[in-house]
């Protein structure tokens, strides 16, 4: 009885939109004014002690197991919860983070492979042809996802102001689109590193197919163990979210070590302007070991590593739009996904994608590009930002 009362109070104050909730006893309550935008059906009692222990894990698992069903947009519902000052997502009584994560080289390898080695065929179903699994960059309202992903690649490379024949290291190279574009269109000598065997095999094959042997190389290796000469430029997209809070300093020190004097790096990753945080459910089911650092945290590590900031750009709205396109693609290919995975996996990924879109929409998280240099800021770069936008 007490659990039911507390859970009802939790629902009552958790949303900024009108919501209808049907409880396990069949009774329905409406919260907020106007017609419900989202309907929630609670099929089984959710113990409050589990919510207090970790609300994100408890509610995420309840949705995966159909203990909770939602009619309407998950993104709209979760965004509303983020916007409500009294929701379980913002109330300190309900915020619980996982214990400190392990990020040894072995655990990092296992964490990355658990996510990225789901299989290239799975990601091919709902990513675009570039196989780019990070925030796109929408220069025009009608840009397709593929066009926006290539916009992002060129936006990153243009910020470096790279010289033909120069060397580039791409830390966490994914399926290779950025590094191979740098080789083909900017005439750079490139090295990409990844811990994903699926990605490594795919990039290695692309290098062979596109005749880039001798100009491009991919390594299946931990970023901390690279044995190469310093590079003129470094890129790293969607990488520092995986290294762990305790290893952020080492990550930026490693970038500094691999950069030549006056070298330039573009680091692109999910950042919280409000400070770093873990998410229990995402850590358990999607990104083991994941940690989203705070803006001040990253800036401190950059400076302490002997580098300086040349430019910062926030791309939060671009990632929201990217995710909304992925969600649409994912829903369109559900028949194919069902041939690979069960319904629990599908509900898990649908929740993950929509929750991330809501988190960017609400400003709970951001994605930021840090243009940094080893030595005085932007010593080798043009004086204004105009060069970033020229063809």
Automatic annotation (TrEMBL):
<dbReference type="InterPro" id="IPR029063">
    <property type="entry name" value="SAM-dependent_MTases_sf"/>
</dbReference>
<feature type="active site">
    <location>
        <position position="356"/>
    </location>
</feature>
<protein>
    <submittedName>
        <fullName>Cyclopropane-fatty-acyl-phospholipid synthase</fullName>
    </submittedName>
</protein>
<dbReference type="InterPro" id="IPR003333">
    <property type="entry name" value="CMAS"/>
</dbReference>
<keyword id="KW-0489">Methyltransferase</keyword>
<feature type="domain" description="DUF7884">
    <location>
        <begin position="6"/>
        <end position="93"/>
    </location>
</feature>
<dbReference type="Pfam" id="PF02353">
    <property type="entry name" value="CMAS"/>
</dbReference>
<keyword id="KW-0443">Lipid metabolism</keyword>
<dbReference type="InterPro" id="IPR057206">
    <property type="entry name" value="DUF7884"/>
</dbReference>
<dbReference type="GO" id="GO:0006629">
    <property type="term" value="P:lipid metabolic process"/>
</dbReference>
<comment type="similarity">
    <text>Belongs to the CFA/CMAS family.</text>
</comment>
<dbReference type="GO" id="GO:0008168">
    <property type="term" value="F:methyltransferase activity"/>
</dbReference>
<dbReference type="Pfam" id="PF25371">
    <property type="entry name" value="DUF7884"/>
</dbReference>
<keyword id="KW-0808">Transferase</keyword>
<dbReference type="GO" id="GO:0032259">
    <property type="term" value="P:methylation"/>
</dbReference>
<keyword id="KW-0949">S-adenosyl-L-methionine</keyword>
<dbReference type="InterPro" id="IPR050723">
    <property type="entry name" value="CFA/CMAS"/>
</dbReference>
């Amino acid at each position: 009885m007490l659990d039911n009362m507390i859970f009802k109070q939790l629902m009552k104050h958790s949303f900024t939109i009108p919501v209808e909730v049907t409880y396990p006893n069949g009774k329905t309550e409406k919260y907020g004014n106007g017609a419900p935008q989202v309907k929630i059906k609670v099929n089984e009692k959710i113990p409050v002690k589990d919510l207090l222990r970790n609300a994100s894990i408890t509610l995420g698992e309840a949705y995966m197991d159909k203990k909770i069903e939602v009619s309407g947009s998950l993104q709209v519902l979760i965004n509303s919860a983020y916007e409500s000052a009294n929701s379980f997502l913002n109330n300190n009584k309900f915020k619980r983070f996982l214990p400190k994560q392990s990020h040894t080289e072995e655990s990092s390898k296992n964490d990355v492979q658990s996510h990225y080695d789901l299989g290239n065929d799975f990601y091919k179903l709902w990513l675009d042809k570039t196989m780019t699994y990070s925030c796109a960059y929408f220069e025009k309202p009608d840009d397709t996802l593929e066009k926006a992903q290539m916009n992002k690649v060129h936006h990153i490379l243009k910020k470096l102001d790279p010289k033909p024949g120069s060397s580039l290291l791409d830390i966490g190279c994914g399926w290779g689109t950025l590094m191979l574009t740098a080789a083909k269109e900017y005439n750079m000598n490139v090295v990409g590193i990844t811990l994903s065997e699926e990605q490594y095999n795919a990039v290695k094959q692309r290098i062979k197919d596109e005749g880039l042997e001798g100009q491009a190389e991919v390594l299946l290796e931990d970023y901390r163990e690279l044995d190469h000469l310093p590079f003129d430029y470094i890129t790293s997209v969607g990488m520092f979210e995986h290294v762990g809070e305790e290893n952020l300093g080492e990550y930026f020190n490693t970038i500094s070590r691999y950069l030549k004097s006056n070298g330039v790096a573009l680091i692109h990753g999910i950042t919280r302007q409000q400070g770093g945080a873990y998410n229990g459910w995402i850590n358990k089911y999607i990104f083991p070991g994941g940690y989203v650092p705070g803006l001040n945290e990253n800036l401190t590590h950059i400076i302490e590593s002997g580098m300086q900031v040349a430019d910062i750009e926030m791309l939060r709205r671009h990632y929201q739009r990217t995710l909304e396109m992925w969600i649409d693609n994912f829903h369109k290919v559900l028949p194919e996904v069902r041939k690979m995975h069960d319904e629990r996996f599908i509900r898990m990924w649908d929740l993950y994608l929509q929750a991330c879109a809501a988190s960017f929409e609400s400003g709970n998280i951001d994605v930021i590009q840090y243009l940094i240099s080893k030595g005085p800021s932007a010593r080798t770069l043009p004086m204004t930002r105009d060069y970033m936008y020229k063809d």
